Each structure stands twice: as structure tokens, then as C-alpha cells.
């Protein structure tokens, strides 16, 4: 972090005035609700919504003992790691190819980055058009060759479909960062290794991959955050968390319990747990960025 | 011992191998581009056929003749030719999405510019507290605090309003941090010179800082426009009024439970309409987009 400026304007009222719009919005829509979530996570409403009583950590212990919540947690782990690994691997593979094909690398960039702009819910619908058991090209094909394909009935197939749709959208983001990382590796280093007789595969694992490690780690965190939170639209549009609960992730469960089941205490406790997860992920990311700044 | 002929042979072999590698790379990339474009292709083609072709499951791979009918139906009525789905005309939804995306992007940029300017160029009591108050909001995306934020909106009477859609989303630490980072690179001499010329802080902001920030503003605008256009959970909760439906949410509502009897051709046309604006922004403003993307994540 840079030291503060040597020359600085004076005054107290003006800077606070400039900060005011952001602070007001932050106060009303961030701190107040976050405080409310923490506060109501310790309360329980009776069945008629007439009174609230303080129940200590009971909402948390209930949530963490609820098999449905644990199942949603497990779904989130499966979903996030599958999305992150698929999107990172595909993007790295394509970026390495684009880096090799020096001429035209930028054209490929244009042709590969636009899925980033497609909304998660729209991405879900595009995949629905392909994998719908009755109207989808691949859905019909799979049924035609004797595989019982219906993501509305089979939980594993539903999970596979939301993973594919979520990863499809995220590859472009990873691709941009991997390509930038690859293009910043000095050609001379690679040529020296080639002259020393290192084959392309060996050059990749001994030189390129270690030099890309910081980028990859950063992207891993970003991808996990994406899979945790930004994929709500994909799941809501494609499977509504079903069939059963097989694609209900933690964020989807907060929505179901809070908005549909109106179970505010439990939903608030879940929100607080999610906040803790985000804070943890952000802290990991910042520790890493601090390091990157120093090198 | 290697002769000159031997050297030339080796060089030619290397060149051949490298060229070979490049061809393979181009082939793989072309395949990758096709795989990524295929879902879009199916959707665009589907949006040009009549409802029965798609309902039967005869998935077409080439354009049909119904494009004009389908897009007109989506644009004007939201598709109620076959059955009344209660669809919202696409032009209303697109207009709402455009408003929401532009207001979110402009709002975020405006309040972030001001607060970053205050934090970087002023020395005042509470400066670090203000900075941390903003910084900490990085950790609370709207998704984790939906229910309590929704309650706040109900109490303030902002449900079913454009301000309800936009205002809670325009506070963000990311934009403030980006501008702070950039302001720190403005040489101190500029401030000194401005002071000597007798320019006050607001004049300096308008005449020096703002013009210098144009590229950063453009880059951020692209990212934030897409962020705003693609909002899903928030509009889903806040808006039940059909006049305020946004296109991303409205399009998925048309699908319902994914019944094969849906008016899929019109849904596909609406999906295409929902995709065109953000994709066009990314492709046309690619340079700023990549800049914005890589710099907001620093």
C-alpha cells in the first residue's frame, strides 16, 4: 500500500459530504440488514408470528443438525468444486492453445469471452434448450440411444446439467486471466528451456504451470465464490433446487427457507453462516493479494 | 560433429514441428469456439421456427421462416398466441433492464468517484474509519443478506419500484477501491500546481481528476452494465408488478415448469433479445471490458 499523499486538501465538512451518498446507502442496505440478520439469528418467532423470543444459539444448532441443511452443504461442495475444476481446466487448456497460436490469439479472445456477458439464468435456459428430454437435441438423442435422460426426475443428471451451464459461463473469465498470465511469461525463458531439450509437456509443467500458480489460485477463489453465490439464477431457472433437493445449494436454501417457507430465524442463521464463509474466502484472497503485491 | 547441411535439416524439422503445433492449436481453438457458441446457435435457430416444430422435438439446426412472426410476438405481446401465459411484452422488459443496468452503473460510478476522491485527497478526522466502512462491504454480497434487506425495503416502501431495484445495488466497495487505486497514481505535483493556481478541491476534481479517469470510468461502466443487466435474485424478490419486469427474470418466468407444450419459439426469441445488449457491449467495448475485468479484481 502506498503512503498517503504529501499534498492534501484540508477541511472536514467537504470530504464527509462527498462520502455521504455511499455511506448512507452502505448503512441502510448493508450494515442495517447484516445487523438484522445477526440479531434475528438468535430469535425465534412463534407459529403465528406474534412474538419473538431469544433462543441463543439454538437456530444455529438446529440448522447444523438438520440433515437437509447438511445435504445442501454437500451439494454446494460437489457443485462448486466441479464448476471450478471444469471451468479452470477448460480455460487453461484453451488459453495455452491461444498462446501458442500467437497470430489470431486476440481473435480467439473475442470469440471466447462473450459468454461472460450472458446472464446465469439465460445460460441455464440455453442449456435447457439442449438437454430438455422432449425438445432438446441432446436430451432426445440420449433417450434415443437408450439412456433414460430426464433432469427433472434424476437428481444426478440435474446436478450435471447445472454444473455444465455454470462452468460454460465461467470459462471466458478464466480464459482472459490465463491468457494474460501466459502472455506475460518471457519468451526467452521458454526458448532457453527448449534449447536445453525440454519437450513442450515438460516445459508446461516445470515452467509455465508454476509461473501461473498465483493466477490459478486467485481464479480458484473467484470461481468458488461464483459457484457459491452467482449461480442462484442457474439453479432457479433450471431445476428449482430439485428434483427433491438434489440441486439445492446453501444459497438456494436461504432463499427457499426465507422466501417460500418464511422461516426467518433459520434463514437468518443460514445467512450468518454464509457471511462467515464469504469473509473467510475474502480473507484468503486478500492474504494472497498482499503477497502478490510484495513480490 | 554437425555439418551445415545437418543444421539446416534440424532447423527445418523444428520449423515443421512448430508449424504443426500451431495448426493443432488453431484446430483445438476453433473447436472450442464452436462448443461455446453451440448453445447460442441452437437458440437463435430455434427462435426462427414455429411452435409445433419445436414442441414435437424436431430440433432444427438451420433457420426456419418464422423469425419475423416470433420476434414480433415476443416484442409486442410476450407470446400469447398459443395460450395466455401472462407474458410481458419484451420491449417493456428490455426497457426496464436497460434502465436498471444504466442506473446501477452510473450510480455506482458516481458515488464511488466521490467517496474515493474524499478518501485519497483529503486529510480529515475519521478518514480511515470511512475507508474501512466501505471496504468491509466487499464481504457482503446481496445474496447472503437477502431476507433482512428485503425487510428493509418493505419498511421503506420501495417494493415494486425502480429505486428499489437500483439503489440497494449501487453501493459497492469494488468501484471505490478501483478509483482509490487509480487516484493514488495521480502525481502529487498536479495537486500542488492546482493549489498554486488557486483551484479548490471541487475545481481540481472537475478539471483534472475527472478527465484523467475517463478510461477507468469506461472500463468500469462495461463491467457494471453487465452486472446490472444480469441481476436475477434481487428483481425476483423486489418486483411483482409486470410493468417493472426485467428481461432476464421475465424470460425464465415464461418457462414455468419447463413443460414441452410451452411456446418455446417465442421463449427462445426472448432469450436472444435478453442476450444481445450485454453481449454487444462486451464485444464492441472489448478493450475496456478486459481492462475493467482485470483491474477490478486487483
Explain how this protein is built.
The complex is a heterodimer of chains A (295) and B (298). Chain A folds into two domains: 13-54, no CATH class; 67-294, MetI-like (MetI-like fold, Orthogonal Bundle), CATH 1.10.3720. Chain A is built from twelve helices and two strands. Chain A has helices at 13-40, 58-65, 67-100, 105-113, 120-131, 137-144, 155-183, 187-195, 200-230, 232-238, 250-260, 264-294; strands at 43-45, 52-54. In chain A, helix 5 runs parallel beside helix 10, helix 7 (155-183) packs across helix 9 (200-230) and helix 11 (250-260) runs antiparallel to helix 12. Chain B is flat and about 75 Å long. In chain B, helix 3 (67-77) crosses helix 14 (264-284) and helix 13 (247-255) runs antiparallel to helix 14. Chain B folds into two domains: 4-77, no CATH class; 90-296, MetI-like fold (Orthogonal Bundle). Chain B is mainly α and 298 residues long. Classes of the chains: A mainly alpha (295), B mainly alpha (298).
Poorly predicted regions of chain B are none
**Level-1 CATH class name of the largest domain in chain A:** Mainly Alpha
Number of helical stretches of at least 4 residues of chain A: 12
Strand line-up across the major sheet of chain A? 1-2
Strand element count of chain B: 0
Termini Cα gap of chain A: 13 Å
Query: How does CATH name the architecture of the largest domain in chain B?
Result: Orthogonal Bundle
Helix content of chain B: over 70%
Query: Could you give the distance between the termini of chain B?
Result: 53 Å
Poorly predicted ranges of chain A: none
The rough form of chain A would be described as globular
Q: What is the residue-mean pLDDT of chain B, rounded to a whole number? A: 83
Q: How many strands of chain A?
A: 2
What is the average per-residue confidence, as pLDDT of chain A, rounded to a whole number?
83
* CATH-defined topology of the largest domain in chain B: MetI-like fold
Main β-sheet of chain A, in a few words? 2 strands, antiparallel
Amino acid at each position: 500500500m502506498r503512503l498517503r499523499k504529501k499534498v492534501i486538501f484540508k477541511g472536514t465538512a467537504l470530504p464527509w459530504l462527498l462520502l455521504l451518498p455511499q455511506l448512507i446507502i452502505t448503512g441502510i442496505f448493508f450494515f442495517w440488514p447484516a445487523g438484522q440478520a445477526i440479531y434475528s439469528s438468535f430469535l425465534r418467532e412463534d407459529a403465528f408470528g406474534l412474538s419473538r423470543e431469544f433462543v441463543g444459539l439454538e437456530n444455529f444448532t438446529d440448522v447444523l443438525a438438520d440433515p437437509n441443511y447438511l445435504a445442501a452443504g454437500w451439494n454446494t461442495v460437489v457443485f462448486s468444486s466441479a464448476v471450478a475444476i471444469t471451468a479452470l481446466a477448460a480455460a487453461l487448456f484453451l488459453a495455452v492453445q491461444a498462446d501458442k497460436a500467437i497470430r489470431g490469439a486476440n481473435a480467439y479472445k473475442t470469440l471466447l469471452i462473450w459468454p461472460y456477458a450472458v446472464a446465469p439464468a439465460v445460460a441455464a435456459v440455453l442449456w435447457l434448450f439442449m438437454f430438455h428430454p422432449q425438445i432438446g437435441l441432446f436430451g432426445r438423442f440420449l433417450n434415443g440411444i437408450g439412456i433414460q435422460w430426464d433432469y427433472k426426475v434424476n437428481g444426478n443428471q440435474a446436478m450435471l446439467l447445472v454444473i455444465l451451464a455454470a462452468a460454460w459461463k465461467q470459462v471466458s473469465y478464466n480464459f482472459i486471466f490465463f491468457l494474460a498470465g501466459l502472455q506475460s511469461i518471457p519468451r526467452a525463458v521458454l526458448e532457453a528451456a527448449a534449447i536445453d531439450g525440454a519437450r513442450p509437456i515438460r516445459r508446461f509443467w516445470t515452467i509455465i504451470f508454476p509461473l501461473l500458480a498465483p493466477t490459478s489460485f486467485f481464479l480458484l477463489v473467484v470461481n468458488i465464490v461464483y459457484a457459491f453465490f452467482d449461480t442462484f439464477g442457474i439453479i432457479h431457472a433450471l431445476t428449482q433446487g430439485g428434483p427433491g433437493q438434489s440441486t439445492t445449494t446453501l444459497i438456494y436454501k436461504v432463499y427457499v427457507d426465507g422466501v417460500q417457507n418464511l422461516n426467518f430465524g433459520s434463514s437468518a442463521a443460514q445467512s450468518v453462516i454464509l457471511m462467515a464463509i464469504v469473509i473467510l474466502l475474502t480473507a484468503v484472497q486478500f492474504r494472497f493479494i498482499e503477497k502478490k503485491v510484495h513480490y | 560433429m554437425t555439418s551445415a547441411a545437418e543444421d539446416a535439416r534440424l532447423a527445418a524439422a523444428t520449423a515443421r514441428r512448430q508449424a504443426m503445433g500451431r495448426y493443432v492449436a488453431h484446430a483445438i481453438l476453433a473447436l472450442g469456439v464452436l462448443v461455446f457458441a453451440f448453445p447460442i446457435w441452437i437458440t437463435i435457430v430455434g427462435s426462427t421456427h414455429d411452435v409445433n416444430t419445436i414442441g414435437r422435438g424436431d430440433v432444427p439446426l438451420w433457420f426456419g421462416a418464422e423469425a419475423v412472426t416470433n420476434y414480433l410476438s415476443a416484442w409486442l405481446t410476450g407470446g400469447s398466441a398459443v395460450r395466455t401465459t401472462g407474458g410481458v411484452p419484451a420491449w417493456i422488459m428490455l426497457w426496464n433492464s436497460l434502465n436498471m443496468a444504466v442506473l446501477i452503473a452510473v450510480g455506482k460510478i458516481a458515488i464511488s468517484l466521490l467517496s474515493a476522491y474524499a478518501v485519497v485527497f483529503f486529510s480529515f478526522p475519521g478518514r480511515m474509519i470511512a475507508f474501512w466502512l466501505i471496504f468491509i462491504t466487499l464481504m457482503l454480497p446481496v445474496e447472503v443478506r437477502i431476507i433482512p434487506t428485503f425487510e428493509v425495503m418493505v419498511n421503506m416502501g420501495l417494493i415494486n419500484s425502480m429505486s428499489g431495484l437500483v439503489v440497494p445495488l449501487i453501493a459497492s466497495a469494488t468501484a471505490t477501491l478501483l478509483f482509490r487505486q487509480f487516484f493514488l497514481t495521480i502525481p502529487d505535483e498536479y495537486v500542488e500546481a492546482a493549489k498554486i493556481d488557486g483551484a479548490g478541491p471541487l475545481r481540481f476534481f472537475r478539471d483534472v481528476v475527472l478527465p484523467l479517469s475517463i478510461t477507468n470510468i469506461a472500463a468500469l461502466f462495461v463491467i457494471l452494465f453487465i452486472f446490472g443487466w444480469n441481476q436475477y435474485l434481487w428483481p425476483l424478490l423486489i418486483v411483482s408488478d409486470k410493468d417493472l419486469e426485467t428481461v432476464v427474470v421475465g424470460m425464465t418466468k415464461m418457462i414455468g415448469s419447463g413443460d414441452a407444450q410451452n411456446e418455446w419459439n417465442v421463449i427462445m426469441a426472448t432469450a436472444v433479445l435478453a442476450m444481445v445488449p450485454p453481449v454487444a457491449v462486451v464485444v464492441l467495448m472489448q478493450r475496456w471490458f478486459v481492462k475493467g475485468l482485470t483491474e477490478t479484481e486487483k
